[in-house]
Specification:
Blueprint lengths: L4 H24 L4 E4 L1 H8 L8 E7 L2 E8 L4 E2 L4 E4 L4 H11 L1 H4 L6 E6 L5 E7 L6 E3 L4 E4 L9
Parallel strand pairs: 4-9
Antiparallel strand pairs: 1-6, 2-3, 2-5, 3-7, 6-7, 8-9
């Protein structure tokens, strides 16, 4: 056995670790994350969300599971979301429905969050009782947002 066997084995371990990190980074590279923010929650509950964002609901029209607002620099590409007009009585009633934990058999009410791309830029806002859902940010400023679902029902 060569004397440098432990050193060679260490190099193999480091090379494997770097490869694994690179593969995971490539696989998850375009997925965004959520950053909970009480100010976003307040904007939804007081019906004062940014007027220049485009808004969508997921779920049934009168009983949405979630509401998102998409920054005007981005475009939503998803069949799960229905457009809705912000800062209106109809919008407020949808927010009120999402907010009610007793309807959903949940303890916690809905909360707001920033939708953040992999580079740390805000691409939209989120309001739901579900803490998050997978979303992808494509290079052409296109968002793919899955409809939320309760991960505790599995």
């Amino acid at each position: 056995m060569p004397k440098n066997y432990p050193l060679t084995r260490g190099r193999q371990g480091v090379a494997f670790l770097l490869l694994a990190v690179t593969l995971v980074g490539c696989a998850l590279g375009s997925y965004g994350r959520f950053h909970r923010d009480a100010e976003v929650t307040r904007m939804f509950r007081t019906n004062t969300v940014p007027a220049d964002y485009r808004y969508y609901i997921a779920g049934r029209s009168g009983m949405p599971d979630a509401i998102i607002g998409v920054d005007p620099r981005y475009h939503l590409a998803s069949r799960f979301w229905e457009p809705v007009e912000p800062n209106s009585e109809a919008f407020a009633s949808k927010v009120a429905f999402v907010f009610q934990p007793e309807i959903w058999d949940k303890v916690d009410p809905a909360e707001g969050a920033w939708m953040i791309d992999p580079q740390g830029n805000a691409v939209g806002i989120w309001y739901s009782m579900f803490p998050s859902t997978p979303f992808k940010v494509e290079e052409n400023q296109q968002l793919e947002v899955l409809a939320p679902r309760d991960m505790t029902d599995r």
